[in-house]
Amino acid sequence: MNGLLFDTHALIWWWNDNPLLSQGVRRRLLDPSGSIYVSAASAWEVATKVRLGKWAEAEEAAELFESLCDRNGFELLPVSVAHGLLAGALPGEHRDPFDRMIAAQAIHDDLVVITRDPALAALGCATFWE
Fold first, then answer.
1. Which domain does 55 fall in, by range?
2. What is the rounded average pLDDT of the residues 6-19?
3. pTM of the full predicted structure?
4. What SS3 class is residue 114?
5. What 3-state DSSP class applies to 33?
6. Is residue 53 classed as helix, strand or coil in its secondary structure?
């Protein structure tokens, strides 16, 4: 399997040990082979939704984002100009800028997105959820 890139909901579920995170994803995340990435777009999404009062479950993540990534051995994936151009050019009606960026990063960097959201796959990226 290629490297993995978290969708933001899956990342927060991992950090909060939420039972909605699939067992297949849990097994894969505990396997030390392969790189696991977290997008800068996820940091932006978490901070935005916490600020707006829309995601109380992510408040700790907003405060400790980088240290949680480091503690888990996740690699931070910055947003590049190429990612931005691809995110803006992806076809489809999906309007969530965070999802569009994560999908673009996955496509551009040949990563598989950890998500249960079928809208990301509809943007053309590979997804994983068992």
1. 4-128
2. 97
3. 0.94
4. strand
5. coil
6. coil
